[in-house]
Amino acid sequence: MKRQRQQTILDLVRAEPLSSQTAILERLHMRGFDVTQPTVSRDLDELGLARIRDADGYLRYSVPEDAAPVGGVGRLRRLLGEFALSMQASGSLVVIHTPPGAANAIALVLDQVGVEGVIGTVAGDDTILVIGREGTRGRTVLSRLQAIQEQEEAG
User: Fold this and answer.
1) CA 81 to CA 46: how far, in whole Å?
2) How far apart are CA 86 and CA 65, in angstroms?
3) Which domains does the chain have, with CATH numbers?
4) Higher model confidence: residue 68 or residue 24?
C-alpha cells in the first residue's frame, strides 16, 4: 500500500504543479487513499521531494530525476544550471546563492552525489554553505562545482 501511495504521489506531482501537502492529500483522497497529513509529510520526505520555485515564481513540489546518470550527477548539473545564481569560495567553504526555495533541493543532491573534497552542506532558503574537507580549498571545490554546472550548459 505504501509503495502504491508513494508512486501515486510521484505521478501527481509530475502531472500538475502541487504547492502544498494539503493539495496532495486531497488528490490522494480522490484516488481512494485514506491517509493523514503526517503520512503525506513522511512520504514526501522519503521520496526526496522538495518545494522549489518554478519559472513563473510559484512554489511547487519537484520530483527527483529517476533517470539521472551516474550517482545523480546529471540531476546536480540540471539543478546548478537552473538555480545557482552565484557561487563564491572562501577558505575551505563555498557559498551558493539560489532563488528562494531552491537551496534545499540542490544541497540534498549535492550531499547525495558526494562531490570530491566536500564533507557536507548547510542550506537555508536561498543560500547553501558547502563545506570542504580538511586541506581542500574552497576554490578547488568551486572549480569542481563550476565544471559540473558548465557541462550542463554545454550539453
Assistant:
1) 25
2) 23
3) 2-62 (1.10.10.10), 70-154 (3.30.1360.40)
4) 24
Cα dist from 1 to 22, 48, 71, 80, 140, whole Å: 20, 19, 28, 35, 46
Using alpha carbons, select from 106, 103, 110, 114 the residue that is nearest to residue 79: 106
Comparing C-alpha atoms, which of 56, 66, 52 is closest to residue 19? 52
How high is the pLDDT of residue 55?
66
Residue 65 has pLDDT above 90, yes or no: no
CA distance 144 to 14: 31
Check whether 66 has a pLDDT greater than 80. Answer: no
| Mean predicted confidence (pLDDT) in 126-152 | 91
Cα separation, 104 vs 92, in Å, equals 21
* Residue 6 host element (H or E): helix 2-15
Query: Is it the case that residue 102 has pLDDT exceeding 60?
Result: yes
Closest listed residue to residue 93, CA positions, set 148, 141, 146: 141
